[in-house]
Amino acid sequence: MCLAIPGKIKSIELQHNGMVKMAKVSFGGITKEASLEMLPEAIIGDYVLVHVGVAISKVNEEEAKKIFKYLEEIGELGELEDVDHYLPKKE
Amino acid sequence: MKFMSEYRDPELAKKYLEEIKRTVSRPWSIMEVCGGQTHSLVKNGIIEMLPKEISMVHGPGCPVCVTPLYLIDKAVHLALDKNVILCSFGDMLRVPGSQKSLLEAKAEGGDVRILYSPLEAVKIAEDNPDKEVVFFAVGFETTAPANALSVIHAYKRGLKNYSILASHVLVPPVIENVLEDVDSHIDGFLAAGHVCTIMGNFEYYPLVEKYKVPIVVTGFEPLDVLQGILMVVRQLEQNKSEVENQYSRIVKEEGNLNAQEIIFEIFEVTDRLWRGMEVIPMSGYSVKEKYKDFDADKKFNITIKEAEENQDCIAGEIMKGIKKPFECPEFGKKCKPSNPLGAPMVSSEGACAAYYHFSGLVER
Ligand code: SF4
Questions:
Q1: What are residue B314's phi and psi, to 5 degrees?
Q2: B321 C-alpha vs ligand 1 centroid, how far in Å?
Q3: B222-237 vs A66-74: helix axis angle to the nearest 10?
Q4: Where are the beta strands (DSSP E) in B65-140?
Q5: Are B122 and B159 in contact (CB under 8 A)?
Q6: Helical axes B144-156 vs B257-266, angle rounded to 10°
Q7: Taking CB atoms and an 8 Å cut-off, how many pairs form between chains A and B?
Q8: B residues 186-215 closer than 8 Å to A (CB)
Q9: Selecting from 2.30.30.140, 2.40.50.140, 2.30.30.230, 3.10.20.540, what CATH number does the domain A5-77 have?
Q10: I need a labelling partner for A47 at 20 to 30 A (CA). Which of B55, B154, B277, B340 fits?
């Protein structure tokens, strides 16, 4: 139930006489509507985390890479060959 | 899918496991608070792969599991009211009440609808002006803004036939409750990443200060959980107790301030009964007086007697991390997902269901 998944904003529109800001968000193949009322700064192309029909956070792309470099940074694991291999592939 | 699948890389997972093995020197108990993390740990076989010094204890972070019996009974009562359309997230339907579940109420003719979002319930209210529409608003801090937003939408659209049956619980008070329990000896915590997405990290600093335990805000993919465990173990081995953020791609230190504003427009913090546990002070949300017309509890004024829990179910001990699901005598015997005796066997985030589905502990 607490599932929240990241998707990419495809379009944004105002509904209910401009009262509600909604986005069409694509999750792989599926597109769903999500409210942007808690993320008014989000723009088309942003990756956002959506939970029960509401976008709750933007994915920070810089921070997203850290997990792939952490072992290297703490410096206790020999050399982590070819880190690029682990980096997120561009969509 | 971007920002999901790459966090399941088995090669890197192995490297994290090796580093955890290298770092650990003594036994440690680590609680993952959130049921989503329990699910990820069990489903991906991480528990079996961890070094034997590390014991993962599954916490109370499954909102479906901790919703008290009397609230399920209230929802069932409303569902059987001919004038009511009762809307709910799917995983609440099979949770046993004292007499019946929502699914059984539906089979008896109750108008029960499964929704993906509370905002859809507002639409249903608009389309059915002659009916009362009630949304069973269950959840932790993660879900509170969406549930609150549904009330704001209904209010702004002038709807008089929409209300929520609020069943909201909060993570920091239950962590404190676990820490105070003499029977549970937890050395460190993985805090629930999506809760912190909304609320930020500030509530954890006083806990770390007072109880000297590391708390690492952690995500849900296998690599997230492994990195979170490594961060906790490193702190423990270095005798540190700090708040760290593993899930920084999503969680900002201050959380989502817009979401917090929406929550506190509608809700206020109250004492709250946790199913299988006890009343924990200031551990839930209830609807504020200003919005009482949208509070199903006040609107319908249902009096439900406190019912006895099923005596065979040891969910309380499981959710405090004192026992594991397979230590329950009914696990996989009388109690299965098709016939759950307790809520942790229902939700995919419940520890009993996770063990039933994904570990080799049950003979079927
Ligand atoms: S296995 Fe079933 S009866 Fe036992 S604690 Fe879990 S939910 Fe309760």
A1: -105, 30
A2: 13
A3: 30
A4: 84-88, 111-114, 132-139
A5: yes
A6: 60
A7: 141
A8: 192, 194-195, 197-198
A9: 2.30.30.140
A10: B154
Residue ranges with strand state E in B40-124: 54-61, 84-88, 111-114
- The complex's ipTM? 0.91
Tokens of A29: 């193949």
For ligand 1, atom 7, name the residue with the nearest CA: B342
The CA radius of gyration of chain A, in Å to the nearest whole number, is: 17
- Measured over the CA atoms of residue B25, residue B30, residue B36 and residue B39, the dihedral's sign is positive
Does A26 lie at the interface with B, CB-CB under 8 angstroms? no
For B174, phi then psi, to 5°, come to -80, -30
Question: Which positions in chain B touch A57 (Cβ < 8 Å)?
Answer: 197, 250-252, 256
DSSP-based three-state secondary structure for B315: helix
Tokens of B298: 């006040």
Predicted model pTM: 0.91
Distance, CA of A38 to CA of B145 (rounded, Å): 8
In tens, the pLDDT along B153-181 reads: 999 999 999 999 999 999 999 999 999 98
Do A53 and B4 make contact, defined as CB atoms within 8 angstroms? no
Structural domain boundaries enclosing B99 = 69-170+256-299
Which residues have a Cβ under 8 Å from the Cβ of B303 and sit 6 or more positions away?
none
A73 touches chain B (CB under 8 A): no
The pocket around ligand 1, CB under 6 angstroms, is made up of B 312-315, 318, 325, 328, 330-331, 335, 340-342, 344-345, 352
d(CA B248, nearest CA chain A) in Å = 6
Q: Is residue B234 part of a domain?
A: no
What are the domain boundaries of chain A? 5-77
Give the total residue count for chain B.
364
**Greatest distance between any 2 Cα atoms in chain A:** 59
